[in-house]
Amino acid sequence: MIVEALNSPRRQIAEIDPALLWSSLLLLTLGLVMVYSASIAFAEGNRAFGNQAAYFLMRHGVFLAIGLVAGGMAFQVPLAVWQKLAPYLFMVGVLLLAIVLIPGVGRDVNGARRWLPLGVVNLQPSELVKLFAVLYAADYTVRKMEVMHDLKQAFLPMAAAMALVGGLLLKEPDFGAFVVIIAIAVGILFLGGMKARLFAFLFLFLLAAFTILIIVSPYRRDRLFGFMDPWADAYGKGYQLSHALIAFGRGEFFGVGLGASVEKLFYLPEAHTDFLLAVIAEELGFVGVLLVVSLFAILVHRAFAVGRQCVQLERLYPALVAMGIGIWIGVQSFINMGVNMGLLPTKGLTLPLMSFGGSGILANCVALAILLRVDWENRQLMRGAKL
C-alpha cells in the first residue's frame, strides 16, 4: 500500500507530456523573474505606481496565480465540451472587441483603445479572442471537412468572420493581434485539408492586403521605414529598435548579469512588455536568448506532436486545437523576437507566457491547459479508457 501511494504521483505526472509541461513552467517562471528585473527602475521612478520597485512583480505574480487557477479549471473540461462552446465563445470575443471601441467604455493608452477597465485590472479582449479563434477555427474546419476544397462553402464564411474581427482590431488599432489571429485561422484551415492551390491564392491575397494596410496608414509606414534603418532617426522613428539593438550588443555571450541592464533605465520603452527579450539579451546574453528560443521551440514542437497523436487516434478537433495553439504561440513569439532583434517592423505584441500583461497570461495559461488536456485524453485513450 505504501509503495502504491508513493507511485501514484508518478503515474499522474506520467499522464502529462513532461517536455510540454516543463517548457511551459520554465517560460512562466523566467518571465516572472525578467518582468521584475525589467520593471524595477520604471516602477520605482513613477508616482503612478507608488514608487514601488516590486509593483509589476506583485501584479504579474497575481496574474500568474489567476492564470494557473484558470488553467487548472480549464484542464478539467473535456475537448468535446470546448467544441460545443467554441461558436459561442467566438461570439463573446467579437462582442468584447466591439464594446472596447465604445467611447467612454474602452480605455485609451498611447493612442490605442484596447482595454476594458474592470476596477483594479484591465481586460484586453484581443488576447482572449486569440484563444477563441483557435477553438472556433478548429470546430469550423471539422464541420466543413467534406467541402474543404470549395472556396465558396469552406473559405468565404470563415473569411467573413475574420474580416469582422480584423475590422474591429484595426479600429483599436491592434495590427499585431490581427496578424496572429489571421495566421491561426489560415493555419488551421490548411492543416484541416485546404487545397494547396487555394492556400497559395489566399496567402498572396493576404500579403497584398497587409501591404495595402501598411501603405495607407502613416504610422505603419513610419514603423516600416524606421525598422529598415533605425539609426537614420535614432531619436524618433527608430528609437525603440535602436535601443533594443544596443541591449543585444551589450549582452554579448553571457550578458552583463541579472538586474544589471542599462537600457531598462528609462532608455528602452516597454521593457517589461514588448521588449522583454532585449532585456534578457542584455542581462543573460546570447545564452539566455538561446534558452528562451529553445523553450519556445520545444513547446511548439510538442504541441504539433500532440496534434499528430490525435490524428492517429482519429480525433480531428483536438488535433486542430493542439496545432492551432502551437501556431498561435509560435507565430506570436517569432514576431516578438523578430521585432526585438530588428528582423521585423516594430509591433505591439508581447512575448507569450513571459511579458507583463494579465489578459495575455490568462489566455496563455488556459490555452496550455487545454493543450495538456488534449495530451491527457490521448494517453487515456491509448490505455483503453473511455472518455
Q: Tell the overall outline.
A: globular
Multimerization state: single chain
End-to-end separation: 28 Å
Low-confidence regions? 1-10
Give the biggest sheet. Answer: 3 strands, antiparallel
Task: Provide mean pLDDT, rounded.
Answer: 88
Total number of helical segments?
13
Number of strands: 3
Share of helix, binned: over 70%
What does this entry look like structurally?
By secondary structure, the chain is mainly α. Helices cover 70% and strands 3% of the residues. A three-stranded antiparallel sheet has the order 1-2-3, with no helix packed on it. α11 packs antiparallel against α12 (316-341) and α11 (276-312) packs parallel to α13 (358-382). The two termini are 28 Å apart. The model is unreliable at 1-10 (pLDDT under 50).
Detail the topology: elements first, then pairings.
Blueprint: H1 2-14, H2 18-44, H3 55-75, H4 79-99, E1 107-109, E2 112-118, E3 121-123, H5 125-143, H6 151-171, H7 175-191, H8 196-215, H9 218-228, H10 239-251, H11 276-312, H12 316-341, H13 358-382
Antiparallel strand pairs: 1-2, 2-3
Helix pairs in contact: 2-3, 2-11, 3-13, 4-5, 5-7, 5-12, 5-13, 6-7, 7-12, 10-11, 11-12, 11-13, 12-13
